[in-house]
Structures are given as structure tokens and as C-alpha cells.
Amino acid sequence: MKRKFIYFINPISGTKGKILLLEIIKKRTAEKNIAFEILHTNAAGDYNYLLQKITAENITDIIVCGGDGTVNQIAHALLGVAVNIGIIPMGSGNGLAFAAKIPKQINKALDIIFNGTAIYVDSFYINKKFSCMLCGLGFDAQVAHDFAQQKKRGLATYVKQSIKNFFSAKTYPFGLSVDGNVINTEAFFISIANSNQFGNNFTIAPQASLHDGLLDIVIVNQMSKMRMIWNIIKQIRKGEVRPYEDKKYHRTDIGYFQTKKLTIQNIKLAPLHIDGDPAVTAAVFEIEIIEQAFKLLMAQ
Predict the structure, then answer these.
(1) 129-290 maps to which CATH number?
(2) What is the fold, at CATH topology level, of the domain defined by 4-123?
(3) In this predicted model, what pLDDT tens digit does every residue of 69-102 receive, in sequence order?
(4) Fewest CB atoms within 10 Å of the CB: 25, 43, 103, 294?
(5) Angle at 74 between CA 69 and CA 75, to 5 degrees
């Protein structure tokens, strides 16, 4: 089947210039003799019109030039649709792209789009809201909320907000229910991950896979700030999955387990982010994996 692309460009994501991106896309796609169209993402995140367009125009690939938030919106609209999704990472974190080993360099990302393999990857729902990669409660979500308010985006701004929030970070009480087992804890944050990282190659769930049918749950429990830094470094390097049935689980500094679904009681309404974007929190979260949610173009 002859391929036909739609490139979506987010005009405000990341910090790179879009003119160079457009020139490279047009030149290289034409060289491959692939028909294509370039569209802008929309602020409302409404892509339902794509369903009819894909069928009517025989679109085979949707290429997202943006960050995790844009991938989230488009992948959600295309659940169950027989189309490939590619990524040219242009966001601030690019967690899903990095988890799929898609480089930030435009030409290298295009190499994967042209020559890679489309592999089904999982996603998940949190209170019926879609997440393609990662959501979090607590510290990292507060960083996401503050980052969204900044005029200047990019890694430097994100690091600045992370450091600022680190010194004022507090713990929140949570109750997690998994297969009839309950974990009650005071934690700085909880991450629910389908990929292995926050973004910018910052790995938080090192055993996570995009297509293993499991969610990776990381709980950073109450401890001193210095101890937290050391334990997060260890988690990044080799965090080991442990069964949640362990009776001493709530005493560990960082808990890490895998499951297909869970319920979280968010007793003090810790802030929430979904795929790096701030989201409205809730007192209870029902979270469940979506296996083989969409096809992502990845390196062979």
C-alpha cells in the first residue's frame, strides 16, 4: 500500500525553529515520493475530524511534530484506527519519543518514520482520561503546573521549576488498592508509567515497556530530602520491581510494582499531570491499561 502522510506541527511546543523543520520535511518526504500534507495542531485538541479524513484520503501515517501533550491528543483521537503514528520530538520533555528511542535530530527522526517498524504500544486511562505515557500525583505534577505558567519553555525552565519545587515539596497521603490489597502511604509523588521515563532521558521506571500490557507504579515515600535525592538516583540506575504484596512495602523509600489496573485515594487532593500537562485532580482515581492502543513508528 502506498503511503500517505499528514504532518502535524505544534507552533508553540519546544524551542526549536519551525522554518528549518518545514524545509527538511518537505525536501525529504518529496525525495521518498510520499504524498503528504502539513497541518497545524489546534489549541482545543480536537482531532475527531481525522477519522473521516483518514478514510476518505487513504492516509497511512500521522506524524506528530511536537511534545507528549500533542501526541496524547492525536493518539487518543486515533484509538482503534488502522494508521501509524510517528514522532518528530519538538516538546520540552519528549518522554514517549525517548522511550521509543526516537532521537530529537529531525533527520534521524525522519529516518525512523520512513524506514522504521510500526509496533503496537499500550496506553492507559485515568478516570477515563487518556494517557499515552505517564501521569503523576504530587511533586512532579506541581512542577508541571508551574512550568505551564512560564513564558519561556524548554529544559532549562523545567529544571529551574523542579529545583524551586524541590525545596518546598511536601508529602501527601495516598491509599492504593491493587487486586484487593491496600497500600497506605505518605509520599512526595506517585508516578503511573507506561514508558520508562519522565522525559529528557530522566528514567523513573527503568523496567517499563511500551508494550508489555503492564503499568509501572513508582511511589516516592516520605523521607529526608537528601535521602530522596540518593534514592531517586538509585531508582534511575536500576530500580527493581517488587511485589506489592510485600508486608514491608510501605516502609520502603521507593516502591516500584507493576499492575494492569489500580485505584488511588488522593486524600489531600495532590496535583495531577497527564503526559506532562497539568490536569484537574480528583479525590479518587481509577487507572487501567489500554493494551495495543495505537501503532507507533519505532526503530527496527
Answers:
(1) 2.60.200.40
(2) Rossmann fold (3.40.50)
(3) 899 999 999 998 999 999 999 887 788 998 899 9
(4) 43
(5) 95
